Amino acid sequence: MSSIAQNIQHIENEIPGTTKLIAVTKTKPVSMLEETYNTGFRRFGENKVQEMSEKFNLLPKDIEWHMIGHLQSNKVKYMAPFVAMVHSVDSFKLLKEINKEAKKNNRTIACLLQIFIAQEETKFGLSAEEAEEILQSTQLGALTNIKIAGLMGMASNTEDPEQVRSEFHSLKTLFESFKQYNNERVDMQELSMGMSGDYMIAAEEGSTLIRVGSAIFGSR
Questions:
Q1: Has residue 107 got a pLDDT over 90?
Q2: Which domains does the chain have, with CATH numbers?
Q3: Residue partners of 209: CB distance under 8 A and separation at least 6
Q4: Largest CB tally within 10 Å, which of 20, 41, 48, 64?
Q5: How high is the pLDDT of residue 220?
């Protein structure tokens, strides 16, 4: 068994059955993605649209592609034909653009609202109030080619596990409170939180999707 297969198996054995693993393949060569694919794994996450599109064109078409990086509206059209889920929606404007491009491709794209939970200025995301505004928006009903499937958040880059736990816990609490808005456009099912350094804490706090790169592929 290859080290990639062993690492995936190790992580999947550690996390509860309610948590799904996304292999973060950014900057990794196509050969490494092929090796991962050959282990039977199908859930890949990319940070940049261009890199994801290039890899999509070279790899089998049953891969489930997740856009996990900051997304600009003008790049949406390149991934709309195939992306399974966008984790990083941080404005209503971006949601409308995803809906527009999904409609052109006769698809419905699952979207997660990215919530700012870290104590760092560098992370993108909505405040709880801004996210609630989107969920309450009367315009949301018209966006028939997207579904808000949950929330995403990135914890502070800190050595303090209790701070990380508290940030994840606050996101889980928000996620549960937002279920009151479930309707045709909103179905709060997925909570995307946890990366290589903190995925076990995230899983313990109720994450349904963890985004793991270096713990699978090794450090860059």
A1: yes
A2: 3-217 (3.20.20.10)
A3: 19, 20, 22, 66, 87, 152, 190, 191, 192, 193
A4: 41
A5: 60
